[in-house]
TrEMBL record, chain A:
GO cellular component: plasma membrane
GO molecular function, one term: transmembrane transporter activity
Keywords: Cell membrane, Membrane, Transmembrane, Transmembrane helix, Transport
Protein name: Energy-coupling factor transporter transmembrane protein EcfT
Gene from which the chain derives: ecfT
One Pfam family, short name: CbiQ
Membrane-topology annotation of the record: Multi-pass membrane protein
InterPro entries tied to this protein: ABC/ECF_trnsptr_transmembrane, EcfT
Primary subcellular site in the record, as a coarse category: membrane
TM region(s), chain numbering: 24-56, 68-85, 105-127, 192-211, 242-261
Biological role: Transmembrane (T) component of an energy-coupling factor (ECF) ABC-transporter complex. Unlike classic ABC transporters this ECF transporter provides the energy necessary to transport a number of different substrates.
Assembly mode: Forms a stable energy-coupling factor (ECF) transporter complex composed of 2 membrane-embedded substrate-binding proteins (S component), 2 ATP-binding proteins (A component) and 2 transmembrane proteins (T component).
Family: Belongs to the energy-coupling factor EcfT family.
Automatic annotation (TrEMBL), chain B:
Keyword set includes Kinase: no
Gene3D superfamilies (UniProt xref): P-loop containing nucleotide triphosphate hydrolases
InterPro entries: AAA+_ATPase, ABC_transporter-like_ATP-bd, ABC_transporter-like_CS, ABC_transpr_CbiO/EcfA_su, ECF_ABC_transporter_ATP-bd, EcfA2, P-loop_NTPase
Broad EC category: translocase
Source organism per UniProt: Pullulanibacillus camelliae
Annotated keywords: ATP-binding, Cell membrane, Membrane, Nucleotide-binding, Translocase, Transport
Name the record gives this protein: Energy-coupling factor transporter ATP-binding protein EcfA2
Domain ABC transporter: 3-246
Gene behind the chain: ecfA2
Length: 263, 290
């Protein structure tokens, strides 16, 4: 079993080196801004921005495709639904209630491109930022929520701990599966009911070991003086640079530009 | 049950960037009733080899023959179940596989999976508990209320209740205290000598390898280096050191003694008493001026 958690592809590009906070804000803003666009020209502008981001990140296209693959089906489905259920413009093709119109085709293309850009921009974020940086960035961005007693630090810690332990749990699962297979359990063959029953001897030991691990981890953290957020400094400090500010200005400049290009 | 391994090669994730050769062209035959110990550095392919013996891994090339079952790259899972009944496997930290409400049910789990009746499985559970030297009262307890050493015995009993003809042990004594260690090893020797179970053990403990096994097999980076009687294998101290392997404590003592006395005392001896006798005899000879 070899599962890569997070899709991070190491690199030294401008985008890799950016502050995760600026990337998070930019992607979040971009996903909303995409919805302003409604004309071909506005879409062209957005596509240009997306392509520029891909080029700057120096990430190979196959990694982006890998991130897209799971969503591709949804995009195709949306395209088909829009193409056949929107009726405006001339009729291109008709068979009973089944119609393909120019308006429908246009609508389908625009919506699919919109979805595609949203997925590409978020994929680009996870491709160029380590999961740990994303959690730390989120923690920092959500910082103000501490004022209303929202446990931001604990939330971020929970996220990074779960990310950290996914591979460990996968390994553990594989080990226990093998041990139970040696005791005659069949996980991948036999009648369905039997296979469902086979989950129990896997889940119980897995839960027990997860709880034990959690307890050990809590103890180890406490033994090293962990007392939560208060007065805690970071090993890796974020540096907000000129490029981060420029990225945000660029993204927010898109709003008036797209508004003007609306049809 | 004889085990024959022919030209066994195993590649993890073939044809991918993560491709890794775990075993390369291994040829071994293990006679029925042998106590074989496999030693080797981490990543030498020991565990991969073990997992071929009961079909948890299938050969990429070559074949594994256990009794009259032949395991090759295309073998079907149906035949594997019969193989797994004949070859019992005790994993590292086997206590992590316990899950039932009572010890009895947990030990009965394996036999029932292999199609044994409930009554027969219960009879085997009682017998297995006795074999691993646990009191019968333990059968009604929850496996999670036991001490670490007891849990390990229960897990081993769960394998023994399947009544395999071959027992595979992956570092069975890891994490046990010296007493628990000795008791568990005595149990395996007993099973091997009295019940005639062919035993194949992986260990990092050279004393166990030297003291208990009929044969020792040394592995390095997926290759079989040597397979012979312990006296022969441990004779070649330099090669073992090269492979990052240690020698038994008795031999280490003889090494230190040789360095101090500026005479060669090193010889493959593994028991503490016989080593002491040997030293006494050698010293006596020296003093007698022979």
């Amino acid at each position: 079993m070899n599962i890569i958690i997070g899709q991070y592809v190491p690199g030294q590009s401008v985008i890799h080196r950016m502050d995760p906070r600026s990337k998070l804000i930019a992607v979040f803003a971009f996903v909303i801004i995409v919805f302003i666009a409604n004309s071909w020209l506005s879409y062209a502008v957005l596509a240009a921005v997306t392509c520029a981001a891909i080029l700057l990140s120096q990430v190979q296209l196959r990694f982006i495709y890998r991130g897209l693959r799971p969503i591709l089906f949804v995009i195709i489905l949306t395209f088909l639904l829009n193409a056949f259920f929107t009726r405006s413009g001339h009729e291109l093709f008709g068979y009973g209630w089944f119609q393909l119109t120019t308006g429908g085709l246009r609508q389908a293309a625009l919506i699919s491109i919109r979805l595609l850009m949203i997925v590409i921009s978020t994929t680009l974020l996870t491709l160029t930022t380590t999961p740990i940086d994303i959690t730390d960035g989120l923690e920092s961005l959500l910082g103000p929520l501490k004022k209303i007693r929202f446990p931001v630090h604990e939330f971020a810690l929970m996220m990074s701990i779960s990310l950290r332990f996914i591979p460990t749990l996968m390994e553990e699962t594989e080990k226990i599966m093998k041990a139970q297979a040696a005791r005659g359990v069949e996980f991948s063959s036999g009648p369905l009911l039997q296979r469902i029953k086979a989950i129990l001897p896997l889940l119980i030991p897995l839960f027990i070991s997860a709880f034990r691990r959690a307890e050990d981890l809590a103890m180890a953290m406490e033994a090293r003086g962990y007392r939560g957020d208060e007065g805690r400094t970071k090993l890796r400090v974020f540096h907000w640079g000129l490029r981060d500010t420029s990225l945000l200005i660029l993204i927010f400049l898109l709003i008036p530009v797209l508004w003007l290009l609306r049809s | 049950m004889d085990i024959i391994i022919k030209n066994l090669t195993h590649v993890y994730q073939p044809n991918s960037p993560f491709e890794r050769i775990a075993l390369q062209d291994i040829n071994v035959s293990i006679a029925s009733g042998t106590f074989l110990t496999i030693i080797g550095h981490t990543g030498s392919g020991k565990s991969s080899l073990l997992q071929h013996l009961n079909g948890l891994l299938k050969p990429t090339r070559g074949e594994v023959i256990v009794g009259n079952t032949v395991l090759a790259s295309g073998s079907k899972t149906k035949d594997l179940k019969a193989l797994r009944q004949k070859v019992g496997m005790v994993f590292q930290y086997p206590e992590h596989q316990l899950f039932e409400e009572t010890v009895e049910k947990d030990i009965m789990f394996g036999p029932i999976n292999f199609g044994v009746s409930t009554d027969e499985a219960r009879r085997r559970a009682h017998k297995a508990v006795e074999l691993v030297h646990l009191p019968k009262t333990i059968l009604e307890k929850s496996p999670f209320d036991l001490s670490g050493g007891q849990m390990r015995r229960v897990a081993i009993a769960g394998i023994l209740a399947i009544e395999p003809e071959v027992l595979i042990l992956d570092e069975p004594t890891a994490g046990l205290d010296p007493r628990g260690h000795r008791e568990i090893m005595d149990l395996f020797v007993h099973l091997n000598k009295r019940e005639g179970l062919t035993t194949i053990m992986v260990t990092h403990n050279m004393d166990d390898a030297a003291l208990y096994s009929d044969e020792v097999m040394v592995m390095d980076r997926g290759h079989l280096v040597v397979k012979d009687r312990p006296e022969v294998v441990f004779q070649d101290v330099d090669r073992l050191n090269q492979l990052g392997l240690d020698i038994p404590q008795t031999m280490r003592f003889l090494q230190l003694l040789s360095a101090k006395a500026e005479k060669d005392f090193v010889t493959p001896l593994f028991g503490i008493d016989e080593t002491a006798d040997y030293i006494a005899e050698r010293l006596k000879k020296e003093w007698d001026g022979v």
